[in-house]
Amino acid sequence: MTARVDLPVRGVAAPGLLARAGVVSALGLALLVPGSAGDASAASSSGTVSAVSAAASGSTGKTALRVAASKKGAPYAWGAEGPHRFDCSGLTQYAFKRAGKRLPRTAHSQYRHVRHIKASSRKRGDLVFFHSGRYVYHVGIYAGKGRMWHAPKPGASVRKERIWTGRVWYGRA
Fold first, then answer.
1. Catalytic residue positions?
2. What is the pLDDT of residues 40-53, one digit of tens each?
């Protein structure tokens, strides 16, 4: 016989062994319980969509895109992570963190961290990775119509710019 433990998520009970083992998390329950935060139609009492359903609906990337655009004109500084100066991966890390998603620090690490997608599947808010062979050396946030927001190089500032090569990979955070 398995003991049941009442969890503070809408009075849902989970098997005690799973709860003690840490297998049942709030996120896991949210995704399994109809009408909970994991349900894309669910909203909090204030009428806003939860972070779980926002991420599921793809708005994380769009929010990150808006954050990056708000940094237009911020100067490039190697290794800078914001909020007033950025390098390329510092800008993407900052923008996605403000959108509720943590990314690693470097462009190459960010590429290894995200879900890889085809160019034909890219959407506004996806990450654009520039590479040489297998090494990723630059990253920006796709803005649509072949353009992206990025922190380009020393002496330049955050700007929206046309993607200048077809040799890029895309990722979705």
1. 88, 138, 150
2. 333 333 323 334 43
